Amino acid sequence: MKKIFFIFTIALLFSCSDSVEIPTSNVSTSDIEGVWNLTSLTSEVNTKVTSLDSSYENESITTHGEEYNFSFNFSQNPNVYTTEGTLNVVTETVINDETETTKHEANTVQGLSTGEWKVSGKNLIFKKGDNGAIQSKFTIEWFSKNKMVLKRNLSENKVKNNSFIVVTGASTIILER
């Protein structure tokens, strides 16, 4: 009976090994290396513009992906990423209670198509160009051998043309092997 329990325990342990979460602070470059398929893309951005005459405009943009056939390939030495494929992006824009929905085919995700990458703490950083400027920085929210959840928060305040602009939002990308 003890042998059966032991064998069952070992089988269960090995059958679950691909889904074991790795603490996001311990994710390494070698953990990221390889091909990752995009399985989910969501984004919500809210903008409020207030002018000096106290008029305001609210804008909300919600985006999600459909019909995914898109992947990221992360290589090491040098740390370069490329993308391949397409997906459909559905965008719903609401400006002062008026809604418009569009759908288009995309071959990039949030402007990411090729460049350098690195892991820094709990962050996956995408760089573009010769100057190594950061293009996007995502927090690794969840990581296992076969699944990675990336999130980017947006919070920006600026003044332009005598108007105060507040932009807030978040994007989530889920990749699977």
Structure description:
The chain has helices spanning 2-15, 29-32, and strands at residues 34-51, 56-75, 80-95, 98-106, 114-120, 123-128, 133-144, 147-160, 163-176. It contains 2 helices and 9 strands; from the N terminus they run ααβββββββββ. It has one domain (2-176). The protein is 10% helix and 66% strand. It is mainly beta and 177 residues long. Strands 1-2-3-5-6-7-8-9 form an 8-stranded antiparallel barrel. It starts with a helix and ends with a strand.
Which SSEs are present, and which pair or pack?
Elements: H1 2-15, H2 29-32, E1 34-51, E2 56-75, E3 80-95, E4 98-106, E5 114-120, E6 123-128, E7 133-144, E8 147-160, E9 163-176
Antiparallel strand pairs: 1-2, 1-9, 2-3, 3-4, 3-5, 5-6, 6-7, 7-8, 8-9
List keywords for this structure.
9 strands, 177 residues, mainly beta, globular
Q: What's the mean pLDDT score?
A: 85
**How does the overall form come out from the CA principal axes?**
globular
The secondary-structure element order is HHEEEEEEEEE
Q: State the end-to-end distance.
A: 38 Å
Number of domains: 1
Q: Output the strand order for the largest sheet.
A: 1-2-3-5-6-7-8-9
Poorly predicted residue ranges: 1-18
In short:
With 177 residues, the chain is mainly beta. Helices cover 10% and strands 66% of the residues.
